[in-house]
Design brief:
By secondary structure, this protein is an alpha+beta fold. It is built from 14 helices and 48 strands. It has a 43-stranded mixed beta sheet that branches. It has a 3-stranded mixed beta sheet with strand order 27-29-30, with no helix packed on it. Strands 12-17 form a two-stranded antiparallel sheet.
């Protein structure tokens, strides 16, 4: 046993010493040069930068750079030797690790497919001989755009004739496969490229390490994902579309030095059936040609446009933001579709003819027709250093645009009425912005023209539109987009008492874009009104809708207003600004306002909104009353509406005030001041025995009332005011005329009774000044501390008026001096004469009784007074 252990130790020692001696004495640099000379890479020492040999503990060669043919640079190369070759003192390279390979102008002529020499050299010299690891292989075109990115590529031999490889083509998927070498010149391979939404497999025969023939298939699980990945410029069109069909594509492939051809292409699925051929040129002066013919394509079976917006599967990985790369490629595409079904429409004879040359992709004809309509697109796609740009024209005609909306999953903006449509526009579009000029939509009941712009920058797209719309009757629910939008706005005012009312604002809170709209309606009909030409500026953003400069004019009235709806908070906020206008109204009376209040309480829950109104009107007409330059501010706190900064010109005077209206219980509180009233302007509203020309007056005070009926509002009305006025003309009353008559020294006292009666029932008198405190309480109007002056008299008056039946009870005391006729001298020694006056009955039919005892006594005494009294 001891001998066996000793022999084993001696053997291991000899082996270790042999390996150590081999590692120490081996000429690795000579072995490496021999490898390079046999590799057919044509590499000399001048192409190598910083070669270093490390012998312990594991021997390897490390090279900073290797430059191949000026256009291929290998960075950070690490070469390791096999242990068995070291033991045999004949080192052989076992594995090569390359951190980066950068291929530049070598690829400019024909892209990746055309690089036969490079690809075949790698396969022929490295395949099955050694293990190869490449961290990054990047191939650039002439414009320094990457056309192929290979990452984490591992090629490892399984036996003397076979190798396996794995890796990933950048964002295009993972690759795996096998390579088998049959002899020095021939071999075969199988390659699989896979992503969550497709799997591509190709196998074939190699001669001189170049593909000769083969076959393959592609299983597409997600067509939207495949299109988005292959054509990033149109990715946004497929962002909310899910695929429903699994499609298989089978083909055969042949290749020579000039081209690679995918022939007998068969595309089969529940939604699609087609065939064709793809010829990829390997030469710079020859174009690649794609020709496809489809017997049928059913988009409804292929896609689900009603899929949820939250894409957590394959679609969530569509993150490649690169544009399509035209480079210097030449390409001709001809696609024909016998029948394409979309919604309830089947398009026939669809043609797509295009060509790519000198960096311009021209769409010569993309068109089709059906029994429902037709479409046509022409234009050109060019590229700058950032993105692709489509510049062309679109024409679309359909018998019912609502079917198109429903087919696209936008049934909420469709209407029931059949709406034929002709759409045309000039369009310039990129990945991040679309511009539509000379935009035109013609239907059987409306014409729309204008310009549109869409910007897809950041997480929230921007939309800008300038539209001119012909006559629209909003009473008819027959306009796609417009009528559903009006219904949505109307619905916001309904169901406010429901618990889920706030959910109605979710579409505004979750709005997916920021929009600015300048819209002009040439004529707008709403309810029973013809609003004439209407212009509005509308801004929409998540949680906010703003209408600026809404101008409505029906020939009699006009309104210039702005509306701001903010739905981002706990409660929606509605801000309304009326900048100017003229309105004729008939609902500002007590009964109509009470009915309006009852409607609000019964149908709305004002506690669920915040309302603010700032109003300025040039004129407001309430029946025969004209109010000029009205302005006020209103805000609500639940059912309490606070009104402030009231200013207006009414009855020729200036009104200022503030107050509040509580809807439940219905309560009104206001303070006000109305100065410099033109009393003549209110004479039509006064009793026939009172009017003014051209008198003025002022009133200020407060009033409050409450109640849920007109009777309660009237009974609970309390008001307290101060009134001053001058130059009031009173009919059927002529106190100054009476004083003038009785002042005549020849006056016949026998006529006093009849003259007083005449003064109380006929004639007219000017009240030069009036001031009074006015109070209303429990249905009674009370005039207190009223003082008036006429030309010859003054009076103190108190009066009450029952506002239910206008019953009048007035008591007054007139005081005046009797003067000599033709002079300003009073009779010597006499005090002012007093005459009482009582008025009863009603405001409209007063009964007047005078107390003339003191006047009668004065007249009797005057007859006995000698002439020539001393004047006062």
């Amino acid at each position: 046993m001891k001998k066996i252990i000793a022999i084993t130790i001696i053997f291991i020692s000899i082996l270790f010493f042999g390996v150590f001696a081999s590692i120490s004495l081996m000429d690795y640099q000579s072995s490496f040069k021999t490898f390079l000379s046999n590799s057919k890479f044509n590499i000399n020492e001048n192409q190598i930068t910083n070669l270093k040999i490390n012998k312990f503990p594991v021997p390897f060669v490390k090279i900073e750079n290797i430059k191949l043919e000026e256009d291929i640079i290998l960075h950070d190369i690490e070469i390791k030797f096999s242990l068995l070759s070291l033991i045999r003192f004949k080192p052989e390279i076992d594995s090569v690790k390359i951190a980066r390979i950068r291929v530049t102008k070598a690829m400019q002529n024909s892209g990746f497919i055309g690089q036969n020499d490079l690809i075949s050299t790698i396969i022929k010299n490295l395949g099955v001989k050694i293990d190869l690891k490449i961290d990054d292989l990047i191939i650039y075109d002439v414009d320094n755009n990457p056309i192929l990115v290979l990452k984490n590529f591992d090629l490892f031999k399984t036996d003397i004739s076979n190798s396996k490889f794995t890796g990933s083509f950048g964002d295009n998927g993972k690759i795996s496969g096998v390579y088998s070498k049959q002899d020095e010149d021939k071999g075969n391979f199988q390659l699989t490229l896979s992503k969550p939404y497709y799997k591509f497999t190709i196998s074939g025969d190699l001669d001189q390490a170049k593909l000769v023939s083969g076959k393959g298939e592609c299983e597409v699980h997600d067509v939207a994902g495949l299109v988005s990945d292959g054509f990033p410029d149109i990715r946004a069109m497929f962002s909310n579309i899910a695929s429903k069909d699994n499609i298989k594509i089978n083909f055969e492939v042949t290749s020579n030095d000039d081209y690679m051809q995918f022939k007998n292409i068969a595309i089969v699925g529940t939604s699609i059936d087609g065939k064709g051929v793809l010829t990829i040129s390997k030469l710079a002066d020859k174009q690649t040609e794609l020709s496809l013919n489809f017997s049928q394509i059913n988009l409804d079976s292929m896609f689900d446009v009603n899929a949820e917006d939250d894409k957590t599967g394959a679609q969530a990985q569509h993150h490649n933001s690169k544009k399509m790369n035209f480079g210097n490629n030449m390409l001709a595409i001809n696609i024909a579709v016998d029948s394409l079904t979309f919604g309830e429409v089947a398009y026939n004879e669809i043609k797509f003819s295009s060509a790519l040359k000198e960096g311009n992709f021209s769409i010569h004809d993309f068109s089709g027709h059906s029994n429902q309509g037709e479409f046509k697109v022409i234009g050109e796609i060019t590229q700058n250093s950032f993105r692709s740009i489509f510049d062309g024209k679109i024409y679309f005609k359909h018998k019912d645009i609502n079917k198109v909306f429903k087919g696209l999953g936008y049934s909420k903006i469709a209407v029931d009425k059949v709406t034929p449509l002709i759409f045309s526009t000039d369009i310039k579009a990129t990945l991040i912005d679309w511009y539509m000029q000379n935009f035109s939509i013609v239907t059987d009941n409306a014409n729309i023209r204008g310009d549109m712009a869409f910007k897809f920058i950041g997480s929230t797209p921007r939309v800008n539109m300038i539209l001119s719309i012909s006559s629209i009757d909003l009473n008819k629910q027959e306009y796609p987009i417009i009528s559903p939008l009006l219904s949505f706005v109307t619905d916001l005012t309904q169901g406010m008492k429901d618990k889920d009312y706030f959910n109605k604002f979710i579409p505004i809170r979750t709005l997916g874009y920021i929009g600015n709209f300048d819209i002009t309606f040439n004529d707008l009909f709403f309810d029973k009104l013809s609003l004439g030409k209407v212009n509005l500026l509308m801004n929409l953003s998540p949680g906010k809708a703003v209408i600026n400069n809404l101008y409505v004019n029906n020939g009699t009235d006009y309104l210039a207003t702005s509306i701001d709806l903010i739905a981002s908070g706990l409660k929606p906020t509605l801000n309304i600004v009326i900048n100017d206008g003229t309105l004729h109204l008939d609902f500002l009376g007590p009964r109509t306002m009470l009915a309006f209040r009852n409607t609000i309480l019964n149908q709305f829950d004002i506690d669920k909104i915040l309302l603010k109104l700032d109003c300025k009107l040039s004129k407001l007409f309430q029946k025969d009353i004209e109010i000029d330059n009205l302005q006020f501010s209103l805000v609500n706190d639940g059912t309490l509406f606070k009104i402030s900064d009231i200013e207006a010109k009414i009855f020729g005077g200036n009104l200022k005030g503030s107050g509040s209206i509580l809807l439940d219980p219905y309560t009104l509180n206001f303070v006000y001041a109305l100065n410099s009233i033109d009393l003549n302007s209110i004479s039509a509203n006064l009793p026939t025995w009172m009017y003014s020309t051209p008198g003025v007056g002022s009133i200020n005070g407060m009033f409050t009332t409450n109640g849920d009926s007109i009777e309660k509002l009237l009974y609970n009305l309390y008001a307290k005011s101060s009134v001053i006025a001058k130059d009031i003309k009173i009919n059927n009353f002529s106190i100054d005329n009476l004083i003038g008559i009785v002042s005549n020294e020849d006056y016949n006292t026998q006529n006093l009774e009849s003259d007083i009666k005449t003064a109380l029932l006929t004639g007219e008198n000017i009240i030069q000044s009036l001031n009074s405190d006015v109070e209303i309480s429990n249905g009674v109007l009370l005039f207190k501390n009223m003082n008036i002056k006429t030309k010859y008299a003054s009076a103190s008056i108190s009066a009450t008026v029952n506002i239910y039946d206008f019953g009048l009870n007035l008591s007054s005391m007139f005081s005046f001096y009797a003067y000599e006729k033709g002079s300003k001298r009073s009779y010597q020694g006499y005090n002012p004469i007093k005459m009482g006056l009582k008025v009863t009955g009603t405001v409209f039919s007063p009964q007047k009784v005078a107390d003339s005892n003191e006047l009668s006594q004065f007249l009797q005494s005057k007859r006995s007074t000698p002439k020539g009294g001393i004047s006062r």
